## 1
Amino acid sequence: MDIRRPPPRSSSGGVEPRFRQVGFVTSSEAEPAPGPAPAASPPAPDGLSTGARSPVMIPPPLIPDHLPAPAPAPESQSFMPSSPPPASSSRLEPVSDLDDDDVDVSWARPPPPALPEPNKRDLTEAKNKDAPTSLSQKPKLSRAERRATQEAQRAAKAAGLKSTAMASDVNTKKSKQPKTAKTSLKKDVTQVNPPVASDKKASEHPPDKDRKKDGPQPRMQFDNVHRVVKAKKCSVVNQSEAQNRVELFRHLPQYAHGTQLPDLESKFFQPDLMHPSVYKVGLQYLSGNISGGNARCVAMLLAFREAINDYSTPAEKILNRDLTAKISSFVSFLIECRPLSISMGNAIRFLKNRITKLPLTLSESEAKASLQSDIDRFINEKIIVADKVIVSHAVTKIRDDDVLLTYGSPSVIEMIFDHAHEVGKRFRVVVVDSRPNLEGQGLLRRLVAKGISCTYTHINAVSYIMHEATRVFLGASSVLSNGTVYSRAGTASVAMVAHAFGVPVLVCCEAYKFHERVQLDSICSNELGDPDAISRVPGGESSSHLKNWADNENLHLLNLKYDITPSDYVSMLITDYGMLPPTSVPVIVREYRREHVWI
Amino acid sequence: MEADAAQNPNPSPVPPPISAYYQTRAEHHAVVSSDWLAHAAAAAAFPGADAAAADAAAPPPSPGVGGVIEEFNFWRRKPEAAEAVAAIMALAAVIRSSRATTMMELEIELKKASDKLKSWDATSISLSAACDLFMRFVTRTSHLEHEKFDAAKSRLIERGEKFGEISLKARKTIAMLSQDFIYDGCTVLVHGYSRVVLEVLKLAASNRKIFRVLCTEGRPDRTGLRMSNELAALSIPVKVLIDSAVAYSMDEVDMVFVGADGVVESGGIINMMGTYQIALVAHSMNKPVYVAAESYKFARLYPLDQKDMTPAHRPIDFGVPVPTGVEVETSARDYTPPQYLTLLLTDLGVLTPSVVSDELIQLYL
């Protein structure tokens, strides 16, 4: 299984930012880069061989060949998808698709943020590097490897010294303890101030928190024990791990959902934890009260809007920097509650970009007002108006006497049906649904209440019902740049059955959900739901054969939330830019970025 | 378009309105069948009445807009002018005769004229595509804003008139580009009569390529016969097939060349009836299908299936009277989805079908 994973990883589009990371890291460390970089012949074979290795494995002896060169590690890492990066911030690790975003933001930023980087961690690192003899004594270790072992030692030490995990949280920004303004202030100082200040602190604290995002993070691999331990130490949400994990999906965050809710609710009034509106949204994600791409994204943006409204820049801080850090901490909290969707990642990227691009001349209130209006504009233009445009396009494709099949309960599809009904088209709807969420029932109830004639069935019967359908309308969580549609699990089956029956498949998706990543399978990036949700069957004791499934270690339950539909099965994408073939997604991504995000 | 159809629920007028586009084509191609004249005479009432009705309904705010149809009709009678060119000429005439004094006024006037043109013949894809393109040109050209109104106006007129040349040049470009695809000893299957395809084959013949052409008959107006006639005049070996013999002779064919009435956003084409089945047969026998089409035929349409288009009808002469109570499929064109096309040869270059949408996005977004 480990052998299987690398190719998808490397093809999942993470590669490009990582190349950028190399450039960034080497330039900021301002070191002997010229040496290893032009050695053009090594990198290629290096990349090939490491590519074949498991991404999470630490690079073994191959590196020693390069060791004589001063800084070989970043070089080899560039080709190696997910080895721990040279300077990783523990806070950002759980980021799923957001890490790319952080990259871009940090890239867009002017030089200063690079300053905090050579903090004590890098200094110690540099010290190590300066002593080539010590290096050559243990040539088997790459930099990444050394870091991993160091971290493991530290983690062990921390665990030993402080019996509770809480104690070790002191450093982290999202400290669970009622550690207060003072800590966070101090912490921020370390961010902005030159290394000397942080150096002092370095002796007393494990260095996790100082490693600010100064380069792109590879997506968190949850089968990497060290990093999981580290990430856990600083998380607000105390997630307990699900048992009996499915091998193929070990790299995804796997949590038993929902159980921490009372615990977190009790923390609501703790000061300085998180902005209350963000906290609320996080809890709503966790409990599943808010679901659906647009709803989640809007809720998040509104929470940020409120947080920005209540925000005041601490003394000796610049709003652009501090607010970005603040938003990042909100985001990582939200990620702990539930992994981000790609649309949310795009929205966050938009917001952070707006923040960093704020002119320094603006007063705080002006800056806040401008950000708030930006958020309003984003919600209005990219979500509300976009949906209206999509509806107006989609309705032209509905003829009288059509039978429209849909799967799940995408919000935009419901709007399309409503509008078509209002316009007076005569059509019938087939709602295909699936366990465990059964969201289609809600859609069904609302459609029937409006007087639309409906048929309801589960996905098991899709091949039977498909011959009645004349159009298949599907929603999407995201559309990737190879035209692949990333959507609620089961969408792919519906699209494939429709394709086999020659029924056109129309995917409706707002353009802000497009992403430049390419993904070829549903394995490398996905979200795991609560396995208990599948084991619970309605119908009382007699039918629940899976009651104590966790006790049986030969039994694994898999509740995947998303799947991907290859573009071959999609006849048309309906977006706010009109009706397009799925092959045009890259063009839209390009235009969209240029016009609206990277202004 | 479908909304329009919904608004005028014509309870199936006994003879469906005949597509003006195909009427023009038939006139250009000088194909006159025995009862075509009778049909045409019967049909002549429709578009005329339509236009008159439109005129009556919306009194022309200025002579320019009122005369756009006449102007268009004048241009489209010229055999060498493509419909799109005629539309551009008509719109340029609107500008010329316009009494507007600001750019905005002119724009509104143009919009009215182009809407009128489009609604006059909703079946013609290249007409609406050309109108859109011209509107795009007027509203999008930024440097126009900084000029004096008169200068801008004359520039627009000039551009409009250049369009005719561009159209002719486009054919030449396509012919040149496609020479790489025709090799000695190959057999080309063509369907119907297309000026672009004819230009391609003409140039290949003048380059002394040795090849053979199979022409379909091109029912109902037998445009294939005219094509074979022109090819034979160039002393290219030609064989005419009936439309139903395509699959039979596909194994001796090396490539299929077709024109297009319109190229849609998916990268598929809308073309004379029969193109789809030829493309299907060619695809299943692994023969390449090349489409020669000028870029002004790119339209922002996206049909999902054959019925998802504005229907274009034309009379069919069966030679014998159709038994009473029998319906006749009079649709004039079909939609070929992009997966059955190999390449599009356009004046923008040789494109794969998926690039069409990219070009359209760049043009219209």
Note: Chain A is about 45% helix and 10% strand.
## 2
Amino acid sequence: MTLSSLYLRTNTSFHMHEITTQKATDQQLQELSSELGLGLNLQEMKQIQAYFKTKKRNPTDVELQVLGQTWSEHCCHKTFKGKIKIDSKEINSLFKTYISKVTKELNPKWCISVFEDNAGIISFDKGYGIAAKVETHNHPSAVEPFGGAATGVGGVIRDVLGVWADPIACTDVLGFGPLDYDYTKLPAGVKHPKYVYMGVTAGIGAYGNNMGIPTVNGAIYFDESYTGNVVVYCGCIGLLPLKKYKKNAKAGHLLILAGGKTGRDGIHGVTFASAELTEKSEEVSRPAVQIADPIEEEKVKRAIIEIRDRELASAITDMGGGGMSSAIGETAERYGCGATVDLDKVPLKYAGLAPWEIYVSESQERMLIAVPLENLEKVVAIFEKEDVEATAIGTLTKEKQLQLRFDGVTVVKMDMQFLFKSLESTKTATYETTNLQEPTLPEPTNLTETLLQLLAAPNIASKESVVRTYDHEVKGNTALKPLHGEHAGPNNAAVIKPLDNSWKGIAISCGINPNYGKIDPYWMAASAIDEAIRNNVAVGGRRIALLDNFVWGNPEKPERLGSLVKACEACYDYASAFKAPFISGKDSLYNESPLGPVTPTLLITAVGIVPDIRSTVSMDLKTPGNLLYLVGNTYPEIGGSEYYKLHGYLGNSVPKVRAAQAKKNFKVITKAIDAGLVKACHDLSEGGLAVAAAEMTLAGGYGAELDLKKIPGEALKRDDFALFAESNSRFLVEVAEKDRQAFEVLTKWKGCSAIGKVSKNQRLLINGLRGSVVVDATLADVRASWKRTLSSEV
Amino acid sequence: MKPEEIRVCVMRVGGTNCDAETERAFRELGVQAETRHLNELVKRKNLMDYHVLVFPGGFSYGDYVRAGVIFARRLYAKLGKELRAFVEDNRPILGICNGFQVLVEEGLLPGFEPMSAYPEASLAANIPQGYNCRWVYLKHESKGNCIFTSRIPQGKVLRIPVAHSEGRFLFPKEQEQQLLERLYEEDLLVFRYCDEHGNYAEGRYPTNPNGSFHDIAGICNSQGTIFGLMPHPERALYWWQQPDWTRQTQMPQYADGKLVFDGLLDYLAKKH
């Protein structure tokens, strides 16, 4: 029996099929799943078969599509919520065991809503809360870089709108293949990193700029493994008056679809996201990439905020992955209702869409809100004023059933209980420690040259050419900008002052260390947490909340899953140690292409509070004669460093995080900032001490003299290691001579010492462990090297 | 007129996105300012209730076709009569960034012909190409005609940020010199891009961030009541908005952008 014989064209005026699943063999069920693009496995297909057997009828294609969407990895996170067998133990939900557990145990009063809504919400000031969310949009960006990245930004902004918050800042962290990748080595279907880089950065900028939301923080990271599968993280921070955070929808409330029209763009986005990229992705999945219209979203935003302020609606959610299907299903589920929807009422971009296409389309700039009948007119009038289309398409019902109709014909009728049943998933993971060797690298004779090369390394080099294409000042509230001062120094974090009547600020920073993950995913995750927090602390941030975003390869492959488990373990260990709860997160798995999997990548975003933005600290050197202190111990941790990478090595001595020491360091910085003792502060990350010092000089326009003999930590034997080790939890701090004593009272332990001074000379001078000068670079050279690499890529 | 009697309308349409901080700047000075959607103003036909009209920054209607052109054409079609009355009454109009583009497309700036049916100048795509967000220096050129800057001494250097991708001021090539002379003759030139010492950019990037002809950053009409500029004075209102405030030990309460709003208030205060 051929597969097509299973399809029965229904006797309807519109395009629909019944699928005779009862007759299907196991093999046919699997073929059906793949032909319809459902992305469901055999076990799941058999559950569907069984369900419709009890209903004594065939499922429609609409029903199968709804199930495919609702049960997709992207929407229900089977890997993070399912069971995992590793070694001899069984983990029941990575999410509960490692991520949400931290927040549950810490249970801070200031966490208002975590992991349950579209974005995490924490308290801020004057009755306002901060909403935060970070998403990934990798696969669409691989197929269509501009559109994929732009809609990634649009999507995460809608997530923030989806908790009634006004978006006030965006972040973006991007991972690309090397820009000088050999064209001849690109497999079919893989776009050149440079093309992807230009498209993605343009897409990010276009959306945020057009919507008038400043893009204030981010990173660009280059790694060979991102060549076939670009990594695009988009984040958004919002602000909401907490008493307007309404969640009181009930049966009888109308479901209003507002915003853009629905078309065929973005069909099967979620199933696309839950599969590996292949040579055919371009052809097969192009329709899965949505089309961006930031102006539409800007208008929708205005209306949503007014509806919020006038308290006219009872529920809101965005239409992202899974489109209407996900938004309507989850809203009904959350409020213990069912829903009835007339799909023919949905405004379309063009005629001819089949009911299933309408329901799962991921066309952009659409929101779903629930509104009591008496407010309908007012709500529609608000949308009209903004030139936004809003249509009542259905109702929440007491009956716990999802019923969809088209032209009066019922096309879906399923029990909510079945649709939202918990999916059993058990996966196997294995983890073996890598047995990497430390390279025997002779110490270079000219370390000045090495430093200049490192400053030009793509992961360290100035990203100014990209950052300037993002409006980071719109709204006029960016108190600490991503690029600092005349020479565009890289600030550790952005600080936003969102309320006119308060000096309180929000510090936004991130941490990402993919290279460490090649040695040990546990230490990669620990390092990312440390980096995100220390960046935040360095500008004056505290009371830090974290967001976790995993980008991994195919979790069906046990070793990929094993490294994910390790990273999750570190998330629990270090978020607990630093008392920094996770408030939101997302996983993007199946990041594989013909070139293999992406290197496991964890982005940690940190959102902190600056009690008074007037005490914010920037990273540029301020005054010649001031002292430079290194806070935090340096260890011979060169594994995964940019220094090794420069010489073509990975190594094994990956930086660890020593929680007790790290906490001490963070505390000292915070105390010193509060006491007004810190003139400048920069975290030490890629490139270690030498690069941090170089960045501080080039931004401030003053030189510095440092002495490696004074570095706190294990006795180091090599100048290059002292200069370029990437040990975590370290800061380089500028303190005025007159504050020496006050600062040293705070730092009376071995993990901190004065290692040099700011100098009037336009030189970075570093004395080595044996007393002689090992680095002597002019600021002009430092600046030129740092700015050269990515100066004209965009 | 006392500041609290002054009524400012910040006009927005879909894609306008600098209205809140523009309104805030006026409020900071004690003026009554409100942001109104074009749709509302069309319904109410009450433009003359306001003393000042402001077109803020953003991407009105997506800046499709050409920056500001759809807003300008729509404004002309839906509110042209009211706007003309507003202009003929010499009431001040300010256009910032996208607002400047709207005023040029509307034929209000440089305004050689009052409300010219065709734009007399253009704010073309930047050279180097692309969006550019940075702080720039502006030299004040007006000899007193522009009411917004009458308080600022001629030759004073101001620091204010730009953020746009279409800000390259151009005249038709064949009339370039002749029209430039007219700008000088009629005292229409208000701001030119320069370095921190006041040396003109002479087209050099990034001192001139967009390749503007003659480093032009802002101009006014012959009455001095209509003023458009690419930089964002509303983003340079408070000291903590400045790019290097963390370097300073003593900061004035306000940044340079405030001068533009101050000048307007001065003018209105004297008016009645």
Note: Chain B has a mean pLDDT of 95.
